[in-house]
Amino acid sequence: MGDTGQIERPAGTYGRAILDRLLIDLSWASSHLEGNTYSRLDTRELIEHGQAAIGKAAAETQMILNHKAAIELLVDNADLVDFNRHTLLNLHAALSENLLPNPADEGRPRQHRVEIGKSVYRPLDTPARIEEDLDLLLDKLARIEDPFEQSFFAMVHLPYLQPFADINKRTSRLAANLPLIRANLCPLTFLGVPEQAYSRAILGVYELTRVELLRDLYLWAYERSTQEYLAIKRDLAEPDPLRLMWRQRIKETVREVVLQAESEPLDVIEKSLADLTSDEDRRNVADLIVEELRRLHEGVLARYGLRPVEFRRWREEQGYR
Question: Most exposed among 100, 179, 212, 251, judged by the fewest C-beta atoms under 10 Å?
């Protein structure tokens, strides 16, 4: 049901085509399962325009922004990320930034005991055992070939192991999307999933080591996601092969242009592309970079590794109002 017609294309092609919508849907729905009170419209304003909702706690705003960064990490690096320590630890670091009592726990396997709310289940509490079981879990995940089995395995076992001090379920929900993004399948956005249903399904794993309820929830949620995304499949523009080929160079150059705010953008672009031997390549890539700069806004800054303050400084130096 999740076939997008792009399974044979390079990893992440479909994810990049739907990225703008995926950032909003998955960030909002996953945060909602954690009790976040942002509306979908609030989430859209925050992600697209950097506008935090009035009256919301700072932690709620941070949670949404962290989801955005984590999703971009998966989609932008779809051809590189896999179920290994580097990917999982960095995914957790993105989701937990500025949200944990001890910042040292961001992206680090758990060093202490944790308790599960509303549950008598007690996860492992010995750091050496946690590390050992995490490596075993990642090894098993990497051996699974079917993307849906891989996705569901992550949804079950990451929360059960509780490898991090907190934010394990959020990490599992985004990790469940990793194989789907890599295989150019529809994502699992969790749109419309009731918090109580999700909580009970996870408790079934914790208390009884039974996966049936979570399995049924996964299937229901995925069918709902595919109905949303396959409906817009025909409207998606075919990825520009030139932009795809030079995407990393384009991102790096846009970043350099903004960071060198006092310099003339065209000079920075020319210097960045000086190593290209083909005049046609230099001209075409430069045109794509200029196009990216013209439509640069706060909602896409993470794509280039930029911060809002750097973007504002560049605009001021270039005379933009």
Answer: 212
Cα–Cα dist 287/249, whole Å: 13
Nearest to 64 by CA among 89, 44, 91: 44
Four-CA torsion 95, 96, 99, 101, nearest 10 degrees: 170
What is the distance between the alpha carbons of residues 88 and 12, in angstroms, rounded to a whole number? 18
- 8 A C-beta contact, residue 123 and residue 157: no
Rounded CA separation 202/210 (Å): 9
Q: Do 179 and 221 touch, CB atoms closer than 8 A?
A: no
pTM over cut 0.70: yes
Backbone dihedral angles phi then psi of residue 185, each to the nearest 5 degrees? -95, 165
Which uninterrupted H or E stretch holds 306? Answer: none
14 vs 218: CA distance, rounded Å:
21
pLDDT tens string 143-196: 999 999 999 999 999 999 999 999 999 999 999 999 999 999 999 999 999 999
Helix (H, G, I), strand (E, B) or coil at 123: coil
CA angle 57, 63, 66 (to 5 degrees): 145
